[in-house]
Design a protein that fits this description.
By secondary structure, the protein is mainly alpha-helical. The chain is 69% helix and 2% strand. The protein has a two-stranded parallel sheet. The chain is elongated and about 85 Å long.
Length: 381
């Protein structure tokens, strides 16, 4: 399960986050070199006060350190019905931490913890019912679990409710409810919810379209490393949406996304090098970036990669590979790729010449709005 992680730079900061700010253990990011110090401090806490909260902390840190003592301690607490221990034990079985991976056993632990109101376990059960992980799909039960967890302010549950109400395939679409849950989740620190709000304002879904508000959400999420948000901030600077047009700033954000191998950012950065936007034109660099995005199954990158193979730009000319790229892009709904495939069949490039197939493809591309395809079809007829 994804968490928005708070960074602890020291053992003291880690403990502060755990005890004072009520952060879940799983949501604290820290240098693993701190483990010995953290374990020593946790042992001292348990010796002074063997409360469930201190024992949970110790067992968690021991498991992080791959010490089976942590599992034994967690199992002992779980047998007493301690809800957080039950949930964490479920996580161990779910992920195979120091125990054999066992989804059924993990679900049993989650169910017991959920019956005692543990918010993370309720969220886990909500996910299980949503996607059929260890349970049959049941959206009504999923929503019930998420709602019980959301009542306790759990950000993942709030965000999940937003998603369920925004996607008609799961539940009757209700963007007003979705926006409410995204806003509440964002207040609880959900970066995914912030990005979802950015998207809603971008397209005017459940709220009036507002590029400035959208950008504000995306900027906040981008500060926490959300790749979807980072790419959107770049798009806004590139196109001057809700902010002054600034290709250099767009380039900076695309580079951040590309560094993390985010396909849309790799694609857009590739086009910057292909067209010489805010950088010196470099078709070889463009090819490398588009190839990476294509390998990550980004359809538009496949299309542009096909053009580079077809014309021998940034790479050796290879009409057979161009055909393959265009075919993949066409199968993913890129109309211009359908047009390029038609041209390959029309000219016998990379495939045997076939006027009839070319005409079929030109007709398809024309129906998808490609003006050049209609013009070419008219010529042939």
């Amino acid at each position: 399960m994804d968490y928005h992680k708070k960074k602890a730079k020291s053992a003291e900061e880690f403990l502060t986050l755990y005890f004072e700010q009520e952060h879940l253990l799983e949501s604290i990011d820290y240098d693993k070199n701190l483990l010995p110090e953290l374990i020593e401090k946790a042992r001292k806490l348990v010796s002074e006060d063997p409360s469930p909260r201190n024992e949970i902390l110790l067992s968690y840190l021991l498991i992080e350190n791959k010490d089976t003592e942590g599992i034994r301690l967690l199992d002992s607490m779980a047998r007493t019905g301690e809800r957080r221990a039950l949930y964490l034990l479920g996580e161990c079985y779910h992920n195979g931490y120091l125990v054999d991976k066992d989804i059924d056993q993990s679900i049993r632990c989650y169910e017991l913890a959920a019956s005692k109101g543990e918010p993370m376990a309720l969220t886990r059960m909500g996910i299980a019912y949503t996607y059929g992980f260890g349970k049959e799909k049941d959206i009504k039960r999923a929503i019930s679990c998420f709602e019980k967890s959301a009542e306790q302010g759990h950000p993942v549950a709030l965000y999940s409710l937003g998603v369920l109400h925004s996607v008609s395939s799961f539940e009757k679409k209700d963007m007003k409810k979705a926006i409410h849950y995204f806003e509440e989740a964002a207040k609880q620190g959900s970066i995914e919810a912030l990005s979802s709000l950015g998207r809603a304002y971008k397209y005017g879904e459940g709220v009036p379209q507002d590029y400035r508000k959208s950008l504000e959400c995306f900027l906040k999420a981008s500060e926490e490393g959300d790749l979807f948000a980072i790419n959107n901030v770049a798009l806004y600077y590139e196109r001057g949406l809700g902010v002054a047009f600034d290709l250099k700033k767009a380039l900076t954000f695309y580079e951040r996304g590309a560094k993390e191998n985010y396909a849309p950012s790799l694609y857009h950065l590739g086009l910057f090098y292909l067209e010489g936007k805010a950088v010196e034109k470099d078709e070889k660099k463009a090819f490398e970036l588009l190839k990476k995005a294509s390998d990550l199954n980004y359809p538009l990158a496949c299309y542009y990669l096909g053009l580079l193979y077809k014309d021998g730009r940034g790479t050796d000319k290879d009409e057979e590979r161009a055909f393959y790229c265009f075919r993949i892009a066409k199968e993913n709904g890129i109309a211009l790729a359908t047009y390029e495939l038609a041209l390959l069949y029309l000219n016998g490039e990379g495939v045997p010449k076939d006027i009839d197939i070319a005409k079929v493809l030109l007709r398809q591309a024309s129906e998808q709005g490609v003006k050049e395809a209609k013009e070419k079809l008219d010529e042939l007829n």
